Structures are given as structure tokens and as C-alpha cells.
Amino acid sequence: MDKLTAIASDNRAQAWLGQFNLGDRTRAQKLLEAFAFVSRDDFTDQMRAMLLRECESVQGMIALYAERELRHRQGKPHRLFKETRRSIKRATGSKGPDAVKPTKAYDPSVGSEGIVAQIISQLCHEYPRKFLNHPGPDQIRKKRARAFWVVTDLIGSGDRASNYLEAAWLVRSVRSWWSGKLMKFAVMAYSSTVPGERWVARHPSKPAIHVVLPCPTIDTSFPTKEAEQMKMLCTAYDPTDGEPGHPPWVWQGPSLGYGNGGALLVFAHGAPNNVPLMFHKASRDKKNTWTPLFPARVSAGITKEVFGIDLTAESISARLDNLGDKGLARSKAVLSSDVQTGQTFLLLSALQKALRLNYRMLANRTGLKTHEIRVLLRKMTHYGWIDSQRRLTDQGYGQLAHARKQELLAGAPMTVGNSEPEPYYPTSLRHPI
After folding, report:
1. Within a domain: residue 324?
2. DSSP bridge pairs for 152
3. Residues 100 and 194 in one domain
4. Do 123 and 233 fall within a single domain?
5. Alpha carbon 258 to chain centroid distance?
6. Helix-strand-coil percent breakdown of the chain, rounded to 5?
7. What is the pTM of this model?
8. Are 77 and 166 in contact (CB under 8 A)?
9. Residues 323, 351: contact at Cβ < 8 Å?
10. What is the pLDDT, as a whole number, of residue 421?
11. Distance from CA of residue 163 to its chain's centroid?
């Protein structure tokens, strides 16, 4: 019997799986095990590292803003900054937008912008000559900020990030700074979906988009046929089916979460609304009750051991198996070595597939973070295992072939970059007998 994963062993997850019919339980568990569970430390550390890494390419100070829902009217967000009432409008005010501010008086709850605002505050205290904490237009001019960064945890549908950019874009001074090439825009997110990233990229400010890890979804985590089966499962167990506001004529749309996202990612500070509804919605039907795994999108009930996305030997083996590299997935020499060696061979195997130049595709196949992929690619190029187009060289194919042979051998663990055996030199000589 296969060993249960951390999430499948969780008591709450076991109770949630028990609500499915026996014929659907195995598929539901496989869908649950496809989730990425991001711990609070991993979120904070990786976001901080990305912001510090990307700030090196900006000549000047950077204005940081925590993405949040903004007040709007007739579908348009309010301007981010105040403007003068003169005929020639000019943004004014030293105070910028609040980092955390509920849009509804009856709902004072704080979302992910709270933890993002804390990261921004700490960075601005530590690097006061590089970062500005939600500055207003007067401070932007005084400090000569050259970048406008919207910081968020997830670009799901892309609506909130795009609306925040639009709120700034409605200010005439901001458009003037952009057209004069005095300021560049960017959205810094821990993760993002493909549709969400495309939607944000369409904004007139032409923002750069940087992510730590592409968001796994049903479409990116499973083959096409199996993905359709997972979507049917989400539709069949949609706890809101039949309730007011649930359009019965739209197949699978609401069931997969906001914007038809089907996201398979949960943070320690909460689950996004792009996750399928059966994971975070409760049923109002008293005869057919449904208890969600993340009630009201709160993930605090899951044990801490579940959270963490660092690759292990077991997860590397599973991903190699999904790539169809059965021999490498069973290679003792690779899997018994350090994790970085396993990651290197995992990426090397993934480069044999199409779309090897696409960072997002490589990250989806391997589970590696985008900056980890860049580092490993540089090392592979240095070793001569890949060329400038990321095609495997003869030496690269030789490394994979050598590693696959270790399935039948109980040799010593391999070390990347020093795979050639040391030549043997005799220390003593005897006369032949």
C-alpha cells in the first residue's frame, strides 16, 4: 500500500474525503494531493528575496503598494491619488493609499494585503534608500521614485491587480511620469495563473510581471482528459448547486472558483477564491450538507506539517515519473543524493520535452521556483550539458543515461558537476609472479 501524503493523512482532509462516494474518493484525493501548500515562512522569505533580487535592476527608488480591493463606481476604481481642481490637473498629497482598508463598512476583515503590507513595511525600514511604503505623489517627486510596484500573493483572475494599476493610471500625473519614461510599472506576485497574467499584461501601463512560482491549476496539473474528469468532479460536488445566484446554464464555470480558475494552491494565511468551490464553500441545504476543507477560505485548521513546497526525494521521483522518465525516477544514485542533484536531473529530463524555453512550462513540470530554474540552467550551461537554446548536448544525454543505469546499481550517490570517476594511480608495484 502506498504511503499517504501529508495532506491525505490530515484528520480534516480525511473527514472531507469521506463525504465523496467511494467511486469518486480516489480521484478527489489525487486532486487534493496536486495542491501546493505554501507556508507563511516560505511566502515571506520568497517574496522578500524576489523584491530584493529585482530591485537591483532599478536605478532609483521604488514605490511599493500592497494590492487590495479598491472602492469603485460604475465599474471604474477611484483614483489612487487626489488631484488639484485647476484646469491642468496635478496629483497632490504626501500620503498615499492605505495599505489595509476595508471597502465595506459592515465587513472589516483583512485579506492577504495584511501580510503583504507587513513585508513592505519591513523592507522599507531595512532599506529606506531603496523602497517607499505606499508613498503619495509629493513623496514620489521628492524621492524621485522610478518604479511603481504592486505587491500581491496571487494573480488569479487578474482583476484586482489590473484595477489597482487602473486606479493609478486614472491620475494624469502618473500617466505623465510613464510617458516621460520616468516610472515603470510592475506586479510582484508569489504566484499567478496564465489567464490572470495575460489579463494584467494587457494594461496600458505595460507592467512587468514577476512571480516566484506559477500557480498550479487543474489544466496545468493533469493531462487534458484527466483534467476534464477533475472538472466534472468539481461540478458534481459543487455545494452551491441549485442555490440562488448559481447560474444552472453555465457548465463548470462557478464550480471551479472565481473566474473559472480551478487553482490548486493554498497559503497558510488563506485559500484564494479561485480554488474550486467544493474546497471552501459549505452547503445551505440541510438535507445534503457539505463541510468544506477550507471553510470560508480559512486554512488554519490544516496541520502545519502539510505546508511547505520544497521538493523532496519522493516528490522528485513522482515528477520524473509524470514526465515519463521511469528509469530516472527509480535511480537510487540520483534520489539518494542531495536534493539539488535530484532537482538538476529533474530539470534536465524536463528539457527533453517541447517548450523548453518557457519558464512557466518548466516550472509546472518540475515544481521548481522560477529563480531556481535560472540558477540550474546557468550551471548546466557551464557543465556543457545544454546549449544556448537549452537543447541537451551529447554530454547532457550521457549524464541522463548514466543516471538511469543506477537503477540496477547500489553505487554511491551522484554529485552534479563531478560525475567523472577519479583516475586510479597505483601506490605500490610488485614483480609479476
Report:
1. yes
2. 189
3. yes
4. no
5. 17
6. 45, 15, 45
7. 0.83
8. yes
9. no
10. 43
11. 20
Q: For residue 233, what are the domain limits?
A: 6-35+217-306
What is the model's pLDDT at position 419?
44
Can you tell me the distance from the alpha carbon of 120 to that of 151, in angstroms, rounded to the nearest whole number?
8
Reference 185, options 198, 166, 199, 172; nearest CA is: 166
Q: At what angle do helices 159-169 and 194-201 cross, to 10 degrees?
A: 10
With a cut of 50, list the residues of the chain below it in pLDDT.
1, 106-107, 248-252, 408-412, 418-429
Residue 78 per-residue DSSP state: P
d(CA 29, CA 2): 13
Tell me which of 306, 339, 369 is where a domain ends: 306
CA–CA dist 310, 299 (Å, integer) = 19
CA distance 70 to 62: 22
Q: Is 82 helix (H, G, I), strand (E, B) or coil?
A: strand
Report how far apart, in Å, the C-alpha atoms of 321 and of each of 324, 330, 385, 401 are: 5, 9, 22, 16
Cell of 390: 537549452
Q: How far apart are CA 64 and CA 146, in angstroms?
A: 11
- One domain, residues 259 and 244: yes
Q: Do 179 and 64 have their domain in common?
A: yes
Report how far residue 384's alpha carbon sits from residue 395's, in angstroms, rounded to the nearest whole number: 7
Count up the domains in the chain and report the number.
3
The grid cell for 174 is: 502618473
List the beta strands (DSSP E) in 176-251. Answer: 184-192, 208-214
